[in-house]
Amino acid sequence: MVAAMLAVLRCGHAYVPLDPAFPAERLSYMVEHSGLSHVLTTKALAGQFAGQRTTCLALDDGQRASIVAPAPAAAPSTAPAYVIYTSGSTGKPKGVAVPRGAMVNFLLSMIDRPGIRAEDVLCAVTTLSFDIAVLELLAPLCAGATVVIATEEEARDPRLLSALLGSQRITLLQATPVTW
What we know:
Layout: H1 2-10, H2 24-34, E1 38-41, E2 55-58, E3 80-85, E4 95-99, H3 100-115, E5 121-124, H4 133-143, E6 146-149, H5 152-156, H6 158-167, E7 172-173
Parallel strand pairs: 1-2, 5-6, 5-7
Antiparallel strand pairs: 3-4
């Protein structure tokens, strides 16, 4: 997942996180609304996108895949880095395109304050479909730090999360109040 995010960004494109736990109708709407040309997924999840006007690439199928798409040498700071969908409290989720420049400014400011150092180990507990995942996954990498991605079960169970924090020598954790 992280390698795919970085590859998409490096190629000058934007990504749209699709949470496989979302209802099929919501995923279908997000794919259609965003106009995705490709979905990077796994073999086990590829069926969720059957019938969509998009190409599914299962990253765990052992095949080398290449996407032939023109990419700018350097995307402008105004180009989208990712499109995050709202919770849909008004009925339909709305896609919000976050510009590359805004993402970079956010990451650099969080590295500066509260601060992330190369020797830090951050535990990522947020699903990719929430925009704070950008902080958890990319800020440590930008700072030369380490990211440990908690499983869904670890992120929801205080005992398992505590064990992970201790065993991985976690120095940073960003979480919602309910997690704390």
